[in-house]
């Protein structure tokens, strides 16, 4: 986070380019310093974009997939997962075509998801999109705080079980761990901008593969120990749960799977880090999306199916913290530590677009405020320094504190994950990408392609509503017995 790097990213995301910089960019578009929009040259590749996507996608959602498949069974579970992967890839490809308006090589860039909606749709839909997008990002921050604290708690509990036996109550609270995670995010949230967290995304992506692989390996070991595969074609049996709970759980499972795949809300921001054409950013982004979706689907199928095969109807809501596994305890500790490290990075990948939006809005409304514009350079060494903004420090810290407090009040991992997946899936992953593509490509109304796109959108809307209802029912059920700030 040297001074030059900080300045580079500050120009790229936090503030729009001036007319002078735009003119300069067109004059020096082919230079080594500037892109065609006057901003400092982007350096992203298909690999860095894939790292960002994998960091965002292979997150805490993978840990609930065994539970989700247990609700749906061996037929519907994998089928729904594959269906979601196709939908995510297809709609992401549509959205990547909306990064530039008009010509995919020379068209005007849209720097954020909201910019793309504004350029293609405008009006009230921009405000609706912004509200849903940033509410979803806020919710993801809460979900990641819960997941990270559960993993830190699991490390302590696994050591307690190892020391005192598997039947030990090991009562403890996740609240201190949420506070620790929140303090860590306050520090990392001071990284000025998205372009400067590539290293964090790469580390987080490695961590995601680490704990997913451990979960997969433990699932295989458990299947071998059981002497066969557990589970049924239709999922958890009526009798283990009531018929009503079976319905709610099945609907919630759709939300869990949707959450595990969703990343469209930050796709445009990721695409804006790619090198200038040729080839076009859209082509590079589609390659990165295909690579990432294939990799994540394989991992999801292996982890989810192996978890269900190992535990059947008793598959825990969180594969590595629900204590379906107790040993080897040190391997569980490594897996949960990897989850925490990954979520530190994933939190920033998701929140940076929200941070940048608020800071851009504040600068536009109060351009002469010293609180907004004043920066201080804090030297780290003779050659490096960190650029701190008082407003950035204040507002981002307030945001992290807010998400931490809410997480302490509602620490329901599966229900929160399902609701977040349902909230963001249809509007942000399907509806807006489909509508923007129809407008940008002038797809004729009532043509075969238009009808197919609208049918896809309607089907996904039904799935989102059903998943949201199931998750809300789960939260209401948990609240009947939950006491905040008490040990588990």
TrEMBL record:
A Pfam family of the record is: Aa_trans
Q: What is its main location?
A: membrane
Q: What GO molecular functions are on record for this protein?
A: symporter activity
Cellular component GO terms, alphabetical: plasma membrane
Query: Which keywords are on file for this protein?
Result: Amino-acid transport, Cell membrane, Membrane, Symport, Transmembrane, Transmembrane helix, Transport
Q: Which domain of life is it from?
A: Eukaryota
As for family, the record states: Belongs to the amino acid/polyamine transporter 2 family. Amino acid/auxin permease (AAAP) (TC 2.A.18.2) subfamily.
Tell me the organism.
Answer: Iris pallida (Sweet iris)
From the Swiss-Prot or TrEMBL record, state where the protein is found: Cell membrane
GO annotation, biological process: amino acid transport
Q: Which residues form the Amino acid transporter transmembrane domain?
A: 42-475
The protein's name is Amino acid permease 3
The cross-references to InterPro entries, in alphabetical order and at most eight, read:
AA_transpt_TM (IPR013057)
Q: Where are the transmembrane segments?
A: 46-65, 72-90, 131-155, 197-220, 288-309, 329-350, 393-413, 419-439, 451-476
């Amino acid at each position: 986070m040297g001074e030059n790097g900080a300045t580079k990213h500050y120009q790229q995301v936090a503030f729009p380019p001036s007319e002078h910089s735009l003119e300069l960019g067109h004059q020096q578009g082919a230079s080594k310093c500037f892109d065609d929009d006057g901003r400092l040259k982007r350096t992203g590749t298909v690999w860095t974009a894939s790292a960002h996507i994998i960091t965002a996608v292979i997150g805490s959602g993978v840990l609930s997939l065994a539970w989700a498949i247990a609700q749906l069974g061996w037929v519907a579970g994998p089928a729904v997962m594959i269906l979601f992967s196709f939908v995510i890839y297809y709609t992401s490809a549509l959205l990547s075509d909306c990064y530039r308006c008009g010509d995919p090589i020379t068209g005007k860039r849209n720097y954020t998801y909201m910019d793309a909606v504004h350029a293609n749709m405008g009006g009230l839909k921009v405000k609706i999109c912004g509200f849903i997008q940033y509410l979803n990002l806020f919710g993801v921050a809460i979900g990641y705080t819960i997941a990270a604290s559960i993993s830190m708690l699991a490390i302590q509990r696994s050591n307690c079980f190892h020391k005192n036996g598997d039947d030990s109550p090991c009562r403890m609270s996740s609240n201190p761990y949420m506070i620790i995670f929140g303090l860590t995010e306050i520090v990392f949230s001071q990284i000025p901008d998205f372009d400067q967290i590539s290293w964090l995304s790469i580390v987080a992506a490695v961590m995601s593969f680490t704990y997913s692989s451990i979960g997969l390996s433990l699932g295989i070991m458990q299947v071998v120990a059981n002497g066969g595969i557990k589970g049924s074609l239709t999922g958890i049996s009526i009798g283990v749960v009531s018929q009503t709970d079976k319905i709610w759980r099945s609907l919630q499972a759709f939300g869990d799977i949707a959450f595990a795949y969703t990343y469209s809300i930050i796709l445009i921001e990721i695409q804006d880090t790619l090198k200038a054409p040729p080839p076009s950013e859209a082509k590079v982004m589609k390659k990165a999306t295909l690579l990432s979706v294939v990799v994540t689907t394989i991992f999801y199928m292996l982890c989810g199916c192996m978890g269900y095969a190992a535990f059947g109807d008793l598959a825990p809501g969180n594969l590595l913290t629900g204590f379906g596994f107790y040993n080897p305890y040190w391997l569980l500790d490594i897996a949960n530590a990897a989850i925490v490290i990954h979520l530190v990075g994933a939190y920033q990948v998701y929140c940076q677009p929200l941070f940048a939006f608020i800071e851009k809005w504040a600068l536009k409304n109060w351009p002469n405020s010293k609180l907004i514009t004043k920066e201080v350079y804090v030297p780290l060494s003779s050659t490096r320094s960190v650029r701190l903004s008082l407003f950035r420090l204040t507002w981002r810290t307030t945001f992290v504190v807010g998400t931490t407090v809410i997480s302490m009040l509602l620490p329901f991992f599966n229900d929160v994950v399902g609701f977040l997946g349902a909230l963001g899936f249809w509007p942000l992953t399907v509806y807006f990408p489909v509508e923007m593509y129809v407008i940008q490509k002038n797809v004729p109304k009532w043509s075969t392609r238009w009808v197919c796109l609208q049918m896809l959108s309607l089907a996904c809307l039904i799935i989102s509503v059903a998943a949201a209802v199931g998750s809300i029912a789960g939260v209401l059920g948990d609240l009947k017995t939950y006491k905040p700030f008490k040990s588990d």
